[in-house]
Amino acid sequence: MLVADDAGLELTTYGNKACRTPHLDALARRSTVFSSAFTSVSSCSPSRAALLTGLPSHQNGMYGLHQGVHHFSSFDGARSLPGILAAHGLRTGIVGKKHVGPEGVFPFEFAHTEETESVLQVGRNITRMRQLVRRFLAAPDPRPFFLYVGFHDPHRCGHTHPQYGIFCERFGDGTPGMGVIPDWTPEQYRPEDVAVPFFIQDTPAARLDLAAQYRTISRLDQGVGVVMTELARAGHLNDTLVIYTSDNGVPFARGRTNLYDPGVVEPLLVSSPRHPASWGTTSHALASLLDLTPTVMAWLGVPYPHYSIWKHGAPVTLTGRSLVPFLAQRDKTGGSRQEKRAARRVARRGGGEAVFASHQTHEATMHYPMRSVRTVAFKLIQNMYYRMPFPVDQDLYLAPAFQDILNRTHDGRPLPWLTSLDQYYHRPRWQLYDLRRDPHEQRNVAGKKRYAAALATLRARLRTWQDTTQDPWRCGPGAVLEDVGAFRQHPACLPLYNGL
Question: Helices in 234-264 by DSSP H: which ranges?
C-alpha cells in the first residue's frame, strides 16, 4: 500500500499533461484506475486512521492530527489492518510516514517511521526508503506480508523546514547544503509551465507554488518506481496486490481540510496480478478510502473480526465495500435506453451509489465539524459550526498561494479566484451542489424548491450513515445526543432551543 501525502490528481493518468509522472503512469498501466475515488476525511492523521481501520474518523476516534500539541489518537478499542492481519499469520511492515496511534491499535512488526528517525529521511529520501523496503522484502520469512509505504511528498514544508523550500522541493537535490538523494533526478518546472486547476487563482504567486509542488511530485513518482523495482527484485511483482493513493486533497484553499471535491478527491490505482485483464482499465464507480480495508481483507481471504470499540457498545459495522469485484469486470457503459433513463431518475432524487465524509478538526485549534454525502449527481455538505468562520491551518497560511489571496483581498486588488475570501470563510449550514450542472461546486441549491426532494433524500441518507457509524455529532448543533443510562436502548436527540 503506497500512500502519498497531500497528493491530488497531478498525474498524466488523470489528465494533467504538465506534471510528468512516468512511474505512476507505468503502475496505472498494470492497474485498474478509479476515476472517482474520495477520502472520508480531509486531514492527514484522520484519513490514515480511517484507511487502516475502515472506520470514519468520528468512529475510530482520530479526530485531528496525531503529532505534537494536537495529540489526537484512535480509540484503544479500535482495530486496524496491521493488527488484524498479524492475527491471521501475516508479517506487517511500515516504511515512512505513520502519523497515527496508539501503537496498540496500529502495531506494525517492522517499523521505520517518524517515530524512529527523521520523517525527511524515511518519507522523502527515496534512497533510504529503498534500503528499508529491500530489508523488509529480503527477510527470510515465508509468511505473506502487508507493507505500508508512507511517502511524505508532496506535503508542504515551508512551515517546518523552510530551508528546503515551499514543498521541500530542494531537499536532496544536490545543490549546496541540500544534500543528495541518489535515486532522485529532480524535474524542473517553470511557473508558466504548470496547469492551474480551476480552484486555484491563476496568479504568479500561485504558479510559483504549483511549480514547487510539481518538483516534489517528481520525487514521489520516482519513489513509487523505486518501490516497484524492489518488489520485482524480491520476486513479488506478480503475486502482490499494490494500491496507490493519497491521504487527502492538495494543500491549497478549497483543498485539504475542505469537503469540496478538491479536498477529498484522490488518485486510486489498484494493481492485482490475479486480474491482468483489468490492467489499464478505468472504473468510474464511486470509491472511498474506507473501501481499502475490506478490499485488502477480501483479496487476502481474511475475515473482518466481530467486535465493539466500547465495552457495552454496538458491534462495529464496516460501511465500505471491497473493490475486488471491480477488478474482475470492465466498466459497463452500455445498458438499455430504459435502464439509463431509470438510473437518471434515481440520481435526480439523490439516489444511487454514494460515498460519505466526516471531518472534525485538523490542528487542535481548527474544530469545524462537517459531514457530507456525494452521489454521481449531488454533493451535500453539512457545516455544523456554520456561524463560525472556516479555520486555516499553519502551513497553508504561510503558503505563497494563500498569502496572495490574503494580500489581494486586503489591498482591494483583483483576485482571479472562483470565490472570495469572505465566502470561503463563511458558509451556510447546508450546501447542496448539482454536480452535473455545477461540477466546480459554486452554486448552492439547498434552498431551491426544485431540489427539495433530493435534499431530503440526501439528508436522510447522511443521517442513516451517521447512525450506522455511531457518530457522536449526529444531533449537532441544535440538540444533545443522549445514548446511555435510560437512553441506551433508544438514543435520542434532545433539543437545546439554541436557535440552531
Answer: 261-264
Express each pLDDT in 291-317 by its tens digit.
Answer: 999 999 999 999 999 999 998 888 999
The cell for 130 is 529503498
The CATH T-level fold of domain 2-340 is Alkaline Phosphatase, subunit A (3.40.720)
- pLDDT tens digits, 415-440: 999 999 999 999 999 999 999 999 99
CA–CA gap between residue 368 and residue 365 (Å, rounded): 9
CA separation for the pair 348, 325 (Å, rounded): 27
Name the active-site residue from 19, 44, 157, 168.
44
Residue 450 dihedral angles phi and psi, to the nearest 5°: -65, -15
Check residue 302 and report its DSSP letter: P
3-state DSSP assignment of residue 212: helix
- Is residue 38 a contact partner of residue 357, using CB atoms and an 8 Å limit? yes
Outline where DSSP puts E strands in 204-335: 242-246, 265-266, 269-271, 281-288
Q: Where are the beta strands (DSSP E) in 31-188?
A: 32-38, 91-96, 110-113, 145-150
Query: Residue 146 pairs with which residues in a beta bridge?
Result: 92
Say how far apart CA 55 and CA 319 lie, in whole Å. 8
Which has more confidence, 329 or 92?
A: 92
Please name the helix (run of DSSP H) or strand (run of DSSP E) that holds residue 373, with its range, or none. Answer: strand 370-375
Residue type, 248: N
330 pLDDT above the threshold of 80: no
User: In the prediction, which pLDDT does 331 show?
Assistant: 52
Map out the domains of the chain as residue ranges. 2-340, 354-473, 474-499
Residue 155 CA to residue 213 CA, distance in Å, equals: 8
| Parallel/antiparallel/unpaired status of strands 370-375 and 378-383 | antiparallel
CATH code for the part of the protein at 354-473: 3.30.1120.10
pLDDT for 97 beyond 90: yes
Which pLDDT does position 405 carry in this prediction?
Answer: 99
CA atoms of 299 and 294, how far apart (whole Å): 8
Residue recorded with cell 439516489:
351
| Residue 44 annotated in active site | yes
Choose among 110, 113, 98: nearest CA to 143: 110
For residues 146 and 85, the answer to whether their CB atoms sit within 8 Å is: yes
pLDDT, tens only, 20-61? 999 999 999 999 999 999 999 999 999 999 999 999 999 999
pLDDT at 348: 74
